Amino acid sequence: MIQRVQSIYLLIASLLSSVLPLIVSLWTQTKESTPIYIFDLFSGHSLLENLIPVFFIVSALVSFSTIFLYNNRKLQFVFGRIAILINLFLLGLLIYLSLTLSGETAVSEKGIGMLIPIFVILLVVLANKAIKKDEDLVKSVDRLR
């Protein structure tokens, strides 16, 4: 049911979580002036650096799989909340990691990639709002019968 507005929101959220981190940098280290992309974090030294790409992938998969749960709106709403929680955790990890970068004598430049979880959260909240609206509409029709 791609014609529903929540499906469009979830598809855009899924694309943001999967494609955009590959294109834009998360931050740029000012010492070497090298941009740090999502796959650069797999070779990171800490577990937190290795978890960030995994959370981006999980967020994209949960958002995309939520589209196909249109028959069960309650489960679709729950999956939307799970996607929001994953992205909130991802945002917290990105903020923590950017504030505690090792070897930070000069402040690094934060990239647009740090804002991706915020945009995904916004889109999933809009999708959940539309799902709730559909559920309320179905309940009101059932009361009239």
State the end-to-end CA separation: 25 Å
State the major sheet: 3 strands, antiparallel
Low-confidence stretches: none
User: Given the C-alpha coordinates, what overall shape results?
Assistant: elongated
Helix run count: 5
Helix/strand class? mainly alpha
How would you spell out the order of helices and strands? Answer: HHEEHHEH
Portion of residues in beta strands equals 5-15%
> Total strand count, please?
3
Radius of gyration (CA) equals 18 Å
Order of strands in the sheet with most strands: 2-1-3
Count of folded domains: 1
Query: Kindly state the mean pLDDT as a whole number?
Result: 84
DSSP helix fraction: 55-70%
Protein traits:
single chain; 145 residues; mainly alpha; 3-stranded antiparallel beta sheet; 5 helices; elongated
What report would you give on this structure?
With 145 residues, this protein is mainly alpha-helical. The chain has one domain (5-144). The protein has five helices and three strands; from the N terminus they run ααββααβα. The chain has helices at residues 5-18, 20-23, 47-67, 73-99, 116-144, and strands spanning 27-29, 34-36, 109-110. A three-stranded antiparallel sheet has the order 2-1-3, with no helix packed on it. Helix 3 (47-67) packs antiparallel against helix 4 (73-99) and helix 4 runs antiparallel to helix 5.
In summary, what is this structure?
By secondary structure, the protein is mostly helical. It contains 5 helices and 3 strands, in the order ααββααβα.
